[in-house]
Amino acid sequence: MATELLKESFPVAARNFDKAGEVSSEIKMILKDLGINSAIIRRAVVVSFEAEMNVVMYTTRGGMITFVLTDEEITLEIIDDGPGIPDIDMAMTEGFSTASEEMREMGFGFGMGLPNIKKNCDKFVIESVVGKGTRVFALIRHVG
Amino acid sequence: MQDLKHGFRIDSSKCTGKMECMRACPAQALRVRSGKAVLVPELCIDCGICLRVCPSGAISPTTITFADIEKYKHKVAIPSAVLYSQFPMSASPAKIQSALMKLGFDAVYDFSVEIELANRAIRECISTWKGPFPLISSSCPVVVRLVQVAYPTMVDQLLPIELPRELAGLEVKRRYSKELGIREDEIAAVYITPCQAKTISIVQPAEGVKSYLDGAVGINEIYNDILVKIKEADSQKSSSSGRLLRSPQLLLWGMPEGQSANLSKQRVLSLTGVANIIKVFDDIEKGKLRNVDYLECYSCEGGCTGGNLTVDNLYVARGKVLSLFSNSIPSDEAFTREVEERYPKTDFALKAPVKPRMVPEGSLGLIELFKRRKRTEEILAVLPGLNCGLCGAPRCRAHAEDVASGRADARDCVFLSRDRINELREIYTRPNGTGRYAKKDDGELKGRSDQAGPEGD
Questions:
Q1: Beta-ladder partners of B8
Q2: Nearest residue, CB atoms, A34 vs list B282, B288, B369
Q3: CA-based nearest residue in chain B for residue A20
Q4: Range of the domain at B36
Q5: Residue B353 lies in a domain
Q6: Domain boundary among B297, B313, B345
Q7: Which of B153, B282, B366 sits opposite A34 (nearest CB)?
Q8: Residue in B with minimal Cα distance to A109
Q9: Least confident of A89-98, B85-94, B336-345, B399-408
């Protein structure tokens, strides 16, 4: 059984584009301090950044990112009570995006978010109910 | 681990412990212990900001002097293009080159060809690069070191192309040894540099190999001498024998957009200043920066014309570069021929890949580092968070980390120990120091420090 070393939750505000990315910066600092392999850190940073952006872009009330570090794994759980995803298969397709024109102009919404998260973790779970919210779980092993 | 060298040295006997360097260092690599600046070598990225801000002249670049190259049979100067922007407009590049000869160099090498070769190689590398993107220019040694220390995952994004100044060093040795029939190690290839960071890339290249250059002389170190020689030549009305620059492109290398001017078809950002570069690198790490192929990065604001061993202010210098550029004649046929001939034959590959810099903590393991981090947080919780620096670390967090790793005593914080204030008063009022009270006579000074409990003040 893996030993839990750290557990931290970070709130993510909806529509807060200028602050978006702060959670992933914080997670990076923690992992760096702990001497985690830099390639692993980069994967965790990409996962948390993309997840954070999804909450910022699509929810109206924000969400929560919970980061857990054990002696073997990094897990990130992202929960929001936003609009939910009607077709998860579609959402997982590279290039598919429901981002508005405005978001695209800001340089977001390339349809790479969820695929990028999946690509960068060892275990990926997504659950979503339209009108209720979305839960994304990502696990990255940092040893072995 | 190989000993890390740096492009500057701190002379403790001159250091007055004013902490300017410690506060300005973007890498938080300086501490002040017992009133003297001390470097944490593994954190230093050689940006040289400490040299600029030191009020007591205690930090100097590890450049070389003529005495150091005395032993060479043939001494060749390879001036950075920035040199030509430092003098009045009447001092043409040709005059500057002939002044260098009068100062004792046997030849001045104009490395326009190598700049053109590198520009081509960069273009080719970018257009065939499979990723990861963006590629990051490696001409600024500080940028390379910043990546090695703070962005280790991005080392394979550093442009894997040999630099023009290194290609020039190689060519100078090859050419003159053939021409003069002497050995390559009897020839000194000396870079005339706008910053101290280039010296470290010569003394200890980031790839851990040997440089083709034998040392660097700072522009500011020979500025006055060149000026005198130019004036002498002007008064004798002697025509300078040097030719014009072989290609105007030489002037632009080291200037923002100097490399990207040749990269119009690609998506390129030109960045200057360490703080700005860090912001963009953070974005790259998150995957936020998309559709950019190449980052041209200069750690000095304004590019190499803003280097810390330059004399003229960077805006005036930039104006001169642009004016020299627009007044210069296009390169001739001989130049084009040489480029065409050498390009296919040139090996642009780095002699070794650039690797992340190892830190001593790297060997400790997760659990030990986790304990250390916990201890850091505990210490940080009792520190005031004012980042006053009186403990000798630039920020409270840095002090907490130093304590947690056994490099410092928690009681160096004035909020945790009253003795610390007295200790500082003692250090900064030493009669031979230049502390605030240093000029007062001894009696008054002593009287003050005797009553100097926190309550007494």
A1: B61
A2: B369
A3: B288
A4: 1-61
A5: no
A6: B345
A7: B366
A8: B288
A9: A89-98
Check CB contact under 8 Å for A42 and B356: no
Same domain assignment for residues B189 and B298: yes
pLDDT digits (tens, 9 = 90+) for B40-62: 998 999 999 999 999 999 999 98
> How many residues are given for chain B?
457
Residue B413 within any structural domain of the chain: no
- Helices (H) then strands (E): counts for chain B: 17, 11
Task: Delimit the domains of chain A by residue range.
Answer: 4-141
pLDDT at B325 exceeding the cut of 80:
yes
Q: Taking a C-beta distance cutoff of 8 angstroms, is the pair B411, B402 a contact?
A: no
pTM to 2 decimal places: 0.86
Q: Determine the length of chain A.
A: 144
* B155 in the same domain as B276: yes
Quickly count: other Cβ atoms within 10 Å of residue B340's Cβ.
Answer: 9
Tokens found for residue B262: 């040749």
Cis amide bond preceding B134, omega within 30: yes
Contact B152 A34 (CB under 8 A): no
- Report, as an integer, the average pLDDT of B280-295: 87
Q: Are residues B141 and B271 in the same domain?
A: yes
Residues B237 and B108 in one domain: yes
What is the per-residue pLDDT across A100-130, written as a single tens digit (0 to 9) for each?
Answer: 877 777 667 766 788 889 999 999 999 999 9
Please choose, from the candidates B66, B62, B64, the residue with its C-alpha nearest in 3D space to the C-alpha of residue B103: B66
Dist. CA A19–CA B70, nearest whole Å: 58
For the record, the structure tokens of A50 come out as: 């993309």
Give percent of chain B above pLDDT 90: 66
Residue B234 belongs to a domain:
yes
Is there a contact between A24 and B286 if contact means CB atoms under 8 Å apart?
yes
Q: Is residue B312 part of a domain?
A: yes
Q: Please check whether residues B80 and B49 belong to one and the same domain.
A: no
Instruction: Tally the domains of chain B.
Output: 2
Q: Residue B326, exposed/middle/buried by CB under 10 A (0-12, 13-18, 19+)?
A: exposed
Pairing relationship of beta strands B107-108 and B36-39 according to DSSP bridges: unpaired
**CATH code, residues A4-141:** 3.30.565.10
Residues B36 and B175 in one domain: no
Complex confidence, ipTM: 0.78
